[in-house]
Amino acid sequence: MHITTSYQISYDDLRRGMVLAHRGRRRFLWVCTGILVICAGLMAVGAAMGDEPWFYLLAVWPLTMAALWAYRLTLGTSRSFQKAMPAFAGTTEVTLTPEGIRIHRPTTTAELAWSLFPKIEDTPDHLFLHQDKRVVTMILKRHLTAEQRAELADFVSSVSRTRAAA
Question: Of residues 70 and 4, which shows the higher confidence score?
Answer without folding.
Answer: 4
